[in-house]
Amino acid sequence: MRAFNSLLLVLLLLALPAYGQSKKLVIRGATVVDGTGRKALVDAVVVVEGERIVAVGPRADVPIPDGARVIEAEGKFLAPGLVDAHIHFFQSAGIYTRPDIVDLRHVVSYEDEVASIRARLVDTFHQYLAAGVTAVVDMGGPHWNFEVRKRAEGMADAPRVAVAGPLISTVARPQLDLGDPPIIQVSNIKEARKLVREQLKDNPVFIKIWYILPPSGDPQENLPLVKAVIDEAHKGGARVAVHATQLETARAAVKAGADILVHSVDDQLVDEAFVKLVKERNIIYITTIVVYEGYADVFSRDIHLSEFEKLRGDPVAMASWQELDRPVDPGEVARRQQRVERLRSAQTIQMENLKRLHGAGITVAAGTDAGNIGTLPGPSMHRELELMAAAGIPPADIIVSATRNAAMVGEAVPRYGTIEPGKLADMLLLSADPLADIGNYRLIERVIKGGTVFTPDELLPPTPAAVVQRQVDAYNARDIDAFAGFYAEDVEIFRLPTGESNLSGREALREKYREFFEQTPDLNCQVMERIVTGNYVVDHEFVTGIAERPRLRATAIYQVEEGLIRRVWFLPKE
Description:
This protein is α/β, with parallel strands linked by helices.
């Protein structure tokens, strides 16, 4: 028995290194944009052990550890994972998610909406990560927010999640109260302090105040409550983030001791005194420009989604936007139009204020307010970066705002957000330079979170609509390998209205279309309209460039199974 135990001990000791060794990863040859604002490092080597970066430097200076997995990345760009400094998990981005703004509870109950959101949390995590957002800050919601944080902490394929509890508010939102409200109105100082102490038990990233102007329009009216919350939070060692979109409420909040302004000021242009105050107090100023655009686009039914948004956005939320009724009453038509105009005007003010504050050296953090109607979790971050560029912010500074600075919202002393030794290995491998064009942050080849490597498609398999669109893109590029790759081995193509089989099998499709592509150098298919029902995609297509049929209209019905097109029915019309 003693000999057996000794043998068992030896076997266990031999096994320990396999389990105890940190995994080692090397990205070699990429240009590193590290998120600090420093000059990019060309032909670099980045070494990761376990979850953390241990070395960053020129190829000649950084040795490759034995046994490391090496990703060859010549011609690529390595940048920090994006950090969305303002999101809400209790909202879906769909039309039913804010009954206090658009009340459609007679169509979909708010109970059903929240149940759906909670059931699809893993999908939401994947939407963020596949879009390159490796960390998010939830700016307040129900107490089940803390469950979301715990769930994300147990998953490699989820973004890092920092959360706040219910918003301590100067106004009520009873439409959102299902027993665990995301917004709680306070009526006196004693109650305000009590709410802070209760939230501190759950270790929130900060205490969030919803500082809304009273009917009188006087920010001083609610200021004592705001001061009480800030004082109690600071006593408990917590920072305070304040929703204050008007200049005077923002000014009052900063003077009262707020640490973070969670939105851009949108009612008027900021003055020099405000800029000086924000800089002196070292306030973090979060952008959230895209959220007004999302609301305005949905309310006006004038939605323009990028291909990236279509590919990585939540299909349930996107489909719901079409379910907003068209008002018939002239008064309601006018009111909705006025609302859209106010939103677009406020967005213009936000962008000018961002430019002024950035120019003064204020710490700007990129955030989207994702989850609100029209603002998709994940892809909306890239639209936010585009809007920052439209406001005149250089790409290098946008990157710092969306990585290092945004990480400072999630953690007072961030463990992530830059590519530096000691930091958590949250990085994106991009196929083009984000310093040349911030839009290149969309060109994600690999997502690395805590040293674990994913491809976007692994995290978020393409939707049926995305699969069909990709094959349309390959068709237009006349790329036969890519085109055929979107079809199943046993694909069948039928002609309507007869239903006769026109083609069977991927290889037959490849041979037919290879010859067709060679003969049609000007081929182009434009999708005029698309309807998606489950795994069926119906496209109304307009095709040009075919010699014998120069203008062809067709209806194509695609059946997609497991990420590939299994059957197609064509109804051509000259």
